[in-house]
Amino acid sequence: MTKPSALSYRPVAIILHWLVALFVISTVPAGIIMLEEGLARSVQDRLFIFHKNIGVVIFLLVIARIVFRAFNPPPPLPSSIPVLQRHVASATHIGLYGLLLIMTISGYVYVIAGGFPIEGLDAIGVPHLVPEDEGLSKSALSIHLAARFVLIALVFAHVGAALYHWLIRRDGVFERMAPMLRRSSQR
Ligand code: HEM
Ligand code: HEM
């Protein structure tokens, strides 16, 4: 019998995954609602502050995840998973990492180049990494707005696939990221 630890992601990877998932799933609606017309100014300000600062936290967590992954590769997938599906899964995961970096960096550049604050970074005195430049700010915004559709589509595909494995295939793939839900027959 294989030990569950050999079948699952490591605890650090699992904690980073679920933190990023929680923050992404909350920052997307915040990003959309904060731009709604007729929203009370105080609510809008709070959503902007939440969206920008959680975005910076997502960036740091994604970098930590990528570095951790480089030294701790994911556990092998069950042998029942066909080769094509393995390739699609890893392409989706690479796409998710790439888009999270694109979204967070473009958001940062849009805000800093536009001369707006990022409260958390400003409070601890982090210097601005890009100059104020209207053209740069506008280009970064175009990237931010275009990439959001791709990220949202990939997240839907990813969550759909995870739920399919958990509820329909019941092949232990979902439990790699949620080992506490592993059934005794999968250990
Ligand atoms: C994974 C991280 C992020 C995601 C998924 C995300 C997603 C979004 C979404 C969905 C919108 C709404 C666009 C619309 O409906 O028109 C938006 C807008 C915005 N985001 Fe982000 N964002 C992220 C990170 C960031 C970061 C790090 C910053 C800045 C530090 C930022 C700053 C902004 C700003 C200022 C807007 C408003 C744009 C406008 O005025 O049209 N975002 N973002
Ligand atoms: C409720 C929502 C989610 C569920 C149920 C879920 C589930 C899972 C599962 C089961 C895996 C492991 C797949 C495998 O073993 O091959 C995984 C991996 C992954 N998930 Fe999620 N996920 C969710 C949300 C998200 C979100 C919002 C993101 C980022 C936008 C994300 C990014 C990733 C990445 C990048 C991996 C690959 C991990 C690696 O190998 O480094 N997930 N997810």
UniProtKB/TrEMBL annotation:
Q: Where in the cell is it found?
A: Cell membrane
| The keyword Iron belongs to this UniProt entry's keyword annotation | yes
- GO terms of biological process kind: respiratory electron transport chain
Q: Name one GO cellular component term.
A: plasma membrane
Q: Which InterPro entries match?
A: Cyt_b561_bac/Ni-Hgenase, Cytochrome_b561_oxidase, Di-haem_cyt_TM
| Sequence intervals crossing the membrane | 12-35, 47-68, 88-111, 145-167
**The Cytochrome b561 bacterial/Ni-hydrogenase domain, residue ranges:** 9-178
The protein's matches in SUPFAM superfamilies, at most eight in alphabetical order, are given as: Transmembrane di-heme cytochromes
Task: Kindly give the membrane topology term recorded for this protein.
Answer: Multi-pass membrane protein
Cofactors per UniProt?
Answer: heme b
Which Pfam families does the record associate with it?
Ni_hydr_CYTB
Q: Which domain of life is it from?
A: Bacteria
GO function term, MF aspect, one: heme binding
Q: Does the keyword Oxidoreductase apply?
A: no
Key words of the record: Cell membrane, Electron transport, Heme, Iron, Membrane, Metal-binding, Transmembrane, Transmembrane helix, Transport
**PANTHER family in the record:** CYTOCHROME B561, CYTOCHROME B561 HOMOLOG 2
Q: Which family does it belong to?
A: Belongs to the cytochrome b561 family.
Q: What is this protein called?
A: Cytochrome b
Q: Which organism is it from?
A: Devosia pacifica
